[in-house]
Amino acid sequence: MKNIDNSIDFATVLASAVHDMKNSLCLLMQSIENLTASIDTKNQTTRHHLASAHYEASRLNTGLVQLLSLYRAGLNSLPVNIDQHFVEDIVDEILASNENYLQHKKINLKIKQTENLAWFLDADLICILLNDMLINAMRYTKLNILLSVYTENDYLVFTLEDDGPGYPESMLAAIDINMQHFDISQGRTGLGLFFARLIAQAHTNNEKQGNIGLKNGGSLGGSVFTLKLP
Q1: In 3-state terms, what secondary structure has residue 39?
Q2: In contact, 178 and 107? CB cutoff 8 Å
Q3: Which end of the chain is more exposed for a tag (fewer CB within 10 A), N or C?
Q4: pTM
Q5: What is the DSSP letter of 29?
Q6: What are 4-43's pLDDT values in tens digits?
Q7: CATH of the domain at 58
Q8: Which residues lie closer than 8 Å to 137 by C-beta, 6 or more apart?
Q9: What end-to-end distance do the CA atoms of the chain give, in Å?
């Protein structure tokens, strides 16, 4: 009788499943957007529910992208595709992805950015990172969010502020958390924070390395997320 190897590479199976789920979520989000466009603007209740569904689907999609990227990176280094991009295009893409939710939650998102700013970076990864941070800000803000984009000391700087309650002390203390220190039993694992730091640090220029920062206060009095790319 022929022996059958029953061993399963669970990591590979999980990565394949995550990839399929991510594709399905993208199609779901597109369907929600199309449905929202077909609903009468007077039907605010239905449009509100659709906006909330799109928001939650976006959160799930971001989480799946993070898991897939971490698998591919082997938790050591993240492969990046660096090229020159206009920063305004990245900001526009993020705004387009969250426009419906911002409108239905009546959140005021203000953009302050240096015009015609171009930088060498991985546009896909930076979009994922900033979109995740914006989703978090939209969840906790009261009314106002400010995204500032500028250069400082040879770094491209993204600063995202809101007027919410600010980051909890546990999250501020976890800025340098490692994967092995995650405590899933506490609910918030810190995966998004770890992933953001991984993306930032994957961007290097000579001896400089990208980094992220968290603090409370800023111009709006709530949380302040900062991404710096060399």
Answers
A1: coil
A2: no
A3: N
A4: 0.72
A5: H
A6: 445 555 556 666 666 677 777 777 877 877 787 788 877 8
A7: 3.30.565.10
A8: 145, 160, 161, 162, 164, 223, 225
A9: 61
